[in-house]
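Re: weekly structure request thread

Next one in the queue (436 aa):
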Amino acid sequence: MTAPEEDKLREQALATLTTARDRTTLLTSCVEDPDLTAQHSPLMSPLVWDLAHIGNQEEQWLLRTVAGREAMRPEIDGLYDAFEHPRAERPSLPLLPPDEARRYASEVRGRVMDVLESTAFHGTRLTEAGFAFGMIAQHEQQHDETMLITHQLRKGPQALTAPDPDPVPLFTGPAEVLVPGGPFTMGTSTEPWALDNERPAHRREVAPFYIDTTPVTNGAYQAFIEDGGYDAPRWWTSEGWAHIRKNSVTAPLYWNRDGKQWLRRRFGVTEVVPPDEPVLHVCWYEADAYARWAGRRLPTEAEWEKAARHDPAGDRSMRYPWGDADPAPEHANLGQRHLRPAPAGSYPEGESPLGVRQLIGDVWEWTASDFLPYPGFQAFPYKEYSEVFFGPEYKVLRGGAFAVDAVACRGTFRNWDYPIRRQIFSGFRTARSGDV
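Done, posted below.
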């Protein structure tokens, strides 16, 4: 790596760490301390836990591991170990109060700035191309997304505001796109900040298939509801049917019927469900049932990635649907720039070579696939990031959402969750097998 290349990566690391911290500050300063220490749902941590956890992970990896410094607060490591304490238990722990958590995270960041300036971006796998700094920026942004989920779950008046996405004409393009069959390169071995489950790059054969041009919309999903989709067991897996009956699930999370119209609660505001937005806050079982009702299916993870990355003209895999350039505002709805998905058909400059839109941003998209390792997978830098989650219990989501920052969203990025989860910013698109 040349000196100019290293300088560019250092600037990128500084920018992504700063962007993440600015967002963390926003999410933890827009409410009063009682809201920071409260647990708004047993599914989520108190916001103040996330704040100190962010600082603790940054200290452990960048100050202790990379720089070899003495621990600042070793006595709190256990409190902020995500595997030692389930979320439901965290309010009962002796957590740092808000002001102390802020000071701790700020002091860690100040020392990290010195380490960033002096660390060579080569020599070890952890420091190569600034990986450790990119990993920590991604970790903070992932917790920022988690905190935004907590804000959505939180009861009470609106605390966050953001401009809406630009309006667009009603999408009238083709409903689906044919993705030709054949091999493509899945995963990556060259993206410097890619996480272990995205690696290594490998060839994957995919049969021809059709995929929705845009994510499934609220209007389309309402048709499923009105047709009795939640009352017809034939559309559901046995596990899915048992889940929705046990939990009285009859519509996406935060939806309520008011006469003949559907309303939703979004960050403290109640509004009419917009029919042209991608449907949001549905679990895997709901996405799978809708797809069956529509005579289709969810795409596999490999199909999703081929639709998002494959350039048939050059027979290569790109970083993003639009090419190799980093995401810009005209490409996708990312980074909490808005607090909602953009209408279906938005961002024509972000479409894939085959014409598929909104594969990056707006809503996480459920796939049919279980979360499994790629051939040749190696855990790095710790097994608890990916390896302990591999198996049929988790389903893969792809593409990111409006709540995801670009640093934690690539064409190869893999997210996963239980098929019952709905508090996440999840939607989907459907597919069907096709001929050449």
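The chain has a mean pLDDT of 96. The two ends are 43 Å apart (CA to CA).
Next request, please.
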